[in-house]
Amino acid sequence: MSGLKKFMSSWEQALNADEELAERNQSPYSTIEGKAAVVLDVKQLEPYTVSVEGGKFSIKKGAAKKPLLCWKVPGDVFKSAMLGEHKLMFSLLDPRNKLIFDTPNFTHWNGATIIEVLLLAQEMSVNNPEISKLVKELEC
């Protein structure tokens, strides 16, 4: 299994184990159910899509056609964000990125959930030496 695939598998497990995210998805303010929440498109790697179906997160290879957020990111920016070298928000605002929003559906509630989804990936990478090593070894 490739390092990126292991990263995605661990991220999916972390998302589904997070009680706060489960609670957020059940809120009447959430409209994320049944949608592609995030497409992570790291340059020189295959894109992955984080979706929510039946209250559960799934991460699959490939880009969804209309995600709430598509983060097209250079490999070095992605690595530094995931390793905690830069705060996630600063990494998202790096001018080398391209952020594409599904504006009508990117409500503040869904946006906060998406930021939490990305922060969980960063926390997982920072706090787990095995995941940190996978991120450092990504060829991008």
Task: Please supply descriptive tags for the structure shown above.
alpha+beta; Nonspecific Lipid-transfer Protein, Chain A; 5 strands; 46% helix
Describe the protein's architecture and organization.
This protein is an alpha+beta fold and 140 residues long. It has six helices and five strands; from the N terminus they run H-H-E-E-E-E-H-H-E-H-H. Strands 3-2-1-4-5 form a five-stranded mixed β-sheet. The radius of gyration is 14 Å and the shape is globular. The protein starts with a helix and ends with a helix. The model has no long low-confidence stretch (mean pLDDT 95).
Summarize the structure.
It is built from six helices and five strands; from the N terminus they run H-H-E-E-E-E-H-H-E-H-H.
